[in-house]
Amino acid sequence: MRYTLKDYQVDAVRDVLKNLAQARDMYHPLRSLTHSTLTATTGAGKTVMAGCGHEAVFFGNDEVRLRARPRRSSC
């Protein structure tokens, strides 16, 4: 990550990742669709937080304490 997140941004990214994990867990057994949002005031760094969340999902991130998930083969 090119930026160092502020404490409130780290908390927000953790919350978003937790919500995404819950959505994944609900979808697989139940096929239940859910949604999640990231809201913050203007200038809070939503774009940076979203970017960090995307990076964490694919590559892991020590700052938000998330390990990268092993990639599944597409074959």
Overview of the structural elements:
With about 80 residues, this protein is an all-alpha fold. Helix content is about 50%, strand content about 0%. It is built from two helices and no strands. Helix 1 (about 5-30) crosses helix 2 (about 45-60). The chain is globular. The mean pLDDT is about 80.
Quick structural summary:
By secondary structure, the protein is mainly alpha-helical. It has helices at 7-30, 46-59. α1 packs across α2.
What order do the helices and strands come in, and which of them pair?
Elements lengths: L6 H24 L15 H14 L16
What attributes characterize this protein structure?
51% helix; mainly alpha; 2 helices; 75 residues
Give unreliable regions as ranges: none
Average pLDDT over all residues? 82
Using DSSP, what is the number of strands? 0
Helix content: 40-55%
